Amino acid sequence: MDYTYFLSKKSLNRKPSPIRALVPLLKIPGIISLGAGNPNPETFPFSSFKICLKNGDVLNVEEKEMDEALQYGPTAGLPALIDWLREFQLAMHSPPYDDFAISIGTGSQDLLTKAFEMLIEPGDNVLIESPAYAGALSFLNSQSCTLIVEIETDEQGLIPDSLSSTLSNWPSLERFPKFIYTVPIGNNPTGSSVHIERKRAIFQIAHDFNILILEDDPYYYLQYNNPRIPSYFSLDTDGRVLRFDSMSKILSAGSRVGWVTGPATLIKQIDLSSQSTNLAPSFVTQAIIYALLKDWKLSGFLTHVDKVAAFYKEKRDIFVKYANQYLRDVAQWNVPEAGMFVWIKLKGIEDSNELITKRAIEKKILAMPGEVFLPNPRPSPYIRLSFSNVSEEQMRLALQKLADLLENVSVN
Ligand code: PMP
Known about the structure:
Shape: globular
Domain Aminotransferase class I/classII large: 63-402
Structural class: alpha/beta
Oligomer: single chain
GO biological process, one term: alpha-amino acid metabolic process
GO molecular function: 2-aminoadipate transaminase activity; kynurenine-glyoxylate transaminase activity; pyridoxal phosphate binding
CATH class of the largest domain: Alpha Beta
Bound molecules: 4'-deoxy-4'-aminopyridoxal-5'-phosphate
InterPro entries: Aminotransferase_I/II_large, Class-I_PLP-dep_aminotransf, PyrdxlP-dep_Trfase, PyrdxlP-dep_Trfase_major
Keywords: Aminotransferase, Pyridoxal phosphate, Transferase
């Protein structure tokens, strides 16, 4: 594929940092470096890290990783963690090509915004599913895009026909879009998951119209059913998928470790962006995550991930129980198969904003009004609820209060 076609001028203008280019040379036996200004580790106060797990296990970060964790290092991330993630991606997705590259970021948000910058030229038109992840919208709104074109979704996620009709009716004088951004599993905000038949249809459309797929998939391992739905990356016979993963929902959000996987040319451009912004994500947190993964191995990690998915499934079931009890007459929703969100349509209401941002707060209930997730803002009858962090009693109380509010609205 000709990746230059997809790259913004800003990205093409990025040159490798001459100082960062020295990093691999430091490995040459006998080399004496008066080049890079690495601080002298003798001055660092840390000698080791002990990682204490909730199950009582204690892990140590080994000396080599400890040295790497405390120093500047390769932009793409801790080499041992990159290697682990590479094997992991091969095992989880069996992609049709194996010379893909990986780069670790400060959470997947870091990589996502770098990918947007890499692809978007001022004046470009971008395609995004609607509703969409608010964190992607806030970044896209800060870019000088001419149009943010909404591709429709339903309870099964992105609609292939909406994508193909938008692309086939694209006005010839308008700049053709270069990518579609989507959250395919346990969607934020709708909770929907795109099954494999749709993914195949969408991949085919992306192939036919030569656009990239930005697969933002932090809820992939929060699928409640087995086997997991395969990813777009697993279908990528062309090298047109950039896949974003995250440890945030499975190990910890504060570790800020995410990774992007895809064609080496594109990943290199993302690395160039890191070289001129944050230099690299934190090696300390990467070393901690790596120590854990090394100890757990793939099987231990997957056991953990299954437990996390089962935890959220139980929360989902509690939500469904009380939603059926309290909201049945005043709202509609789809039961999510993954993730932590439910997208609820309020009956008889055109704009959920005032209800959620004022009256629900007065009743001490927090939720998100649907308009926050619309790429081109307008009133929405939807709200997004998250069941991730509430007890059964809190869920019951919240839905009961919400139902009271909605019943009062319909009465008034
Ligand atoms: N994409 C989506 C769809 C998300 O919901 C989030 C987190 N809310 C992110 C990306 C960012 O995740 P991270 O913590 O890995 O930066």
